[in-house]
From TrEMBL:
Keywords: Membrane, Transmembrane, Transmembrane helix. This is Zinc-finger protein. It comes from the Bacteria. InterPro entries: DUF983 (IPR009325). The chain crosses the membrane at residues 62-84, 90-107. Pfam families: DUF983 (PF06170).
Length: 132
């Protein structure tokens, strides 16, 4: 485990941190998990001991999930309806399933990505740490 110490003014790499968060890994080391169970934040990284108690994702992941799922589902629903004209219950069943599965997939990933963004930009309590 190699950990470097940087000054408070030095920037952290944004996109690698967001990408690690998307994978639900620690934005600092990319090894330890950010989440346990489904959406619960770990207090610290099990690999590099990065503190996650400062992370504040709040409603951001839910908002982004609804935004993406809504746009994808509506576009696909329009295409399917115009080209195939399925029965209403078939259309409902298909797109309810798509919306649920896509939401369950995206929600924890958006939460990890937002935490990675906060870490990279030194937002909230992440600004007081010297570990990068």
């Amino acid at each position: 485990m190699t950990t470097q110490t940087f000054s408070q003014d030095e920037e952290r790499a944004l996109w690698p941190a967001v990408r690690r968060g998307w994978k639900r890994k620690c934005p600092n080391c990319g090894e330890g998990p950010v989440l346990h169970s489904y959406l619960k934040m770990n207090d610290t990284c099990t690999h590099c001991t990065q503190d996650f108690t400062a992370a504040r994702a709040d409603d951001g992941p839910a908002y982004l999930t609804i935004l993406i799922v809504g746009h994808v589902a509506i576009a696909l629903m329009h295409i399917v309806f115009v080209h195939f004209r399925p029965e209403p219950m078939v259309l409902f069943s298909l797109f309810a399933t798509i919306a649920i599965v896509l939401s369950l997939y995206l929600l924890p990933r958006f939460k990890g990505a937002i935490v990675g963004y906060q870490w990279a930009k030194r937002m909230f309590g992440f600004s007081h740490e010297e570990r990068v």
